[in-house]
Amino acid sequence: MPRARVSAVSRGRRKTLSMIAMGGAALALGNLRPARAAQPLRLGLTAVFLDDQVAFLRQWRNYLEAKLGRRVEFVQRGRYRETMELLRGGNLDAAWICGFPYVRYRQDLTLVAVPVFEGKPLYRSYLIVPSSDAATRSILDLRGRMFAYSDPDSNSGFLYPTYQLYKAGQRSEAFFARTFFTWAHRMVVEAVAASLAHGGAVDGYVWETLRLASPELTARTRVADKSPEFGHPPIAARASLPAEEARALQAVLTGMAADPEGRALLGRLNLDGFTPGSDDLFSSIDRMRLEVFQG
User: Fold this and answer.
1) Do residues 115 and 231 touch, judged by C-beta distance below 8 A?
2) pLDDT at residue 233, rounded to an integer
3) How far apart are CA 247 and CA 76, in angstroms?
4) 4-121+231-293: CATH homologous superfamily?
5) What are the residue ranges spanned by the domains of the chain?
6) Which one, out of 50, 94, 105, 260, has a CA that is 20 to 30 A from the CA of 131?
7) SS3 for 131?
8) 114-153 pLDDT, tens per residue?
9) Cα Dmax for the chain
10) What is the pTM of this model?
11) What is the CATH number of domain 125-227?
């Protein structure tokens, strides 16, 4: 997920973000029970985050703690499945996850907030190839080649490209000569940039953020195709988290765009803000899941 040095990017071109705020962070914060407020809020992070974000995470944690009035602990895992197991098992209070596991485990989760990227709570899956490949226009042009997926629980990095093959009557294991998982979107970009794979599926938000932070890396790749828009990977809470705690976290996140310090942090995430969102944002992901995996 995004790197701390993204803060240097595009300050001059950023739109006014105050309209994105869906409510003041002060709302709902006074409702936390003292006993619960004494406990840390455990927030999980997955491979949607870029690397090298230690300094940023410290500053974001301090911001959240000041707004929430309680300690915050970030728990990072390299694979979506590990984070989802912690979240569903009650060992996390909330996590920044992907739309694919969100729709799969919807009954165990509460939607808290959806990032707003380039003015919308949406993103795309990118098919990327080495920059030297000028011919590839779709995943179907890569028959018999090597292909990099990010994570088997990723929409952009696995479900959507699998769905494309499914609609063409193809199966990944028969269509490609070889496939492999990198377990991080950045690593998909690095694998394709180094020609370790002839193509890869990556979160478009991550690729665009890398384009700003590490243009020398993305310049060695080319976006050959883009998916339709999907709901951006959301922040979701375990369903058992008390409602007032979920509302408090939502108020802080959706209020960041109206707050100078919050806007600075958002700039480093390459986001415009957060919105409460709705399940409708993820309906197309759920349809693909049901069609490809029969539920």
Assistant:
1) no
2) 97
3) 23
4) Periplasmic binding protein-like II (3.40.190.10)
5) 4-121+231-293, 125-227
6) 50
7) coil
8) 999 999 999 999 999 999 999 999 999 999 999 999 999 9
9) 61
10) 0.86
11) 3.40.190.10
